[in-house]
Amino acid sequence: MPRTHAALPRLFVDLPLAQGAELTLDRDQSNYLGAVLRMPLGGEVILFNGRDGAWLGRVVNPSKKALGLELVEQTAAQTAPSDFWYGFAPLKSARLDYVVQKATEMGAGTIQPVITRFTQVHRINADKLRANVIEAAEQCEVLTVPELAPETTLDRLVAGWDPERALIFADEGQASASPIAALTALGSRPFGLIVGPEGGFAPEERERLLAQSFTIPISLGPRILRADTAAVAAMAVIQATIGDWR
Fold first, then answer.
1. Is the pTM of this model over 0.70?
2. CA 183, CA 237: separation in Å to the nearest integer?
């Protein structure tokens, strides 16, 4: 999507957006625009809600507690939802924030924590993950905000997986062959990506994944990558071959 009004702040709001509508921001967003950015009467901001596209809002009440805006015009139409499912074994805090942000930036439509044998983090702060998704969407002009699916286990995931959807598996055990041919062969088939934890999948987990008819194992090269690096590398190669940018 081409950038528009790039110099203006962007905010996600969980409110209906339409021409001429007037809305009041919550206390935190009002404080951010009114007290931090010191936005005056007539100041402008881009708003989006993941449903109605992006809208130019103009300040009509510069209150620091309940800032009021009028929607002037739509600046970008709503983008179609992405069918790209991304599953990951939760990592420690900073790296977990990073992979969720990057998945949002790189076009994931659904983001889901998957608990594996070697997962180091077993308590997921869903509100924090959601905040990271929204922050990345605000910064990168993502209009279709990814769904954050509830955590699951690898066993439940595999048992309930739709066999018509390919599950791309970043497999450390694969020979260092280019993943391009395997990904290109998927054509327009729907797909998901799963990346394991630090230390990788347990041997029995890897065997179970490889035994599934829908699993597409790919190598990310001869180097040992951290889990957060592997996630970004896998998403980049997927978008470069079968992604939605073409």
1. yes
2. 9
CATH number of 85-242: 3.40.1280.10
Cα of first residue to Cα of last residue in the chain, in angstroms, is 12
Identify the CA nearest to 29 among candidates 5, 9, 54. 9
Coil, strand or helix: which one is 230? helix
Spell out the domain ranges in the chain.
Answer: 10-76, 85-242
Query: pLDDT per position in the chain (246 positions), as tens?
Result: 446 677 899 999 999 999 999 999 999 999 999 999 999 999 999 999 999 999 999 999 999 999 999 999 999 999 999 999 999 999 887 888 999 999 999 999 999 999 999 998 778 899 999 999 999 999 999 999 999 999 999 999 999 999 999 999 998 877 667 899 999 999 999 999 999 998 889 999 999 999 999 999 999 988 888 999 999 999 999 999 998 865
Q: What are phi and psi of 90, to 5 degrees?
A: -55, 140
Query: For 10-76, CATH number?
Result: 2.40.240.20
Count of Cβ atoms closer than 10 Å to residue 147 Cβ: 15
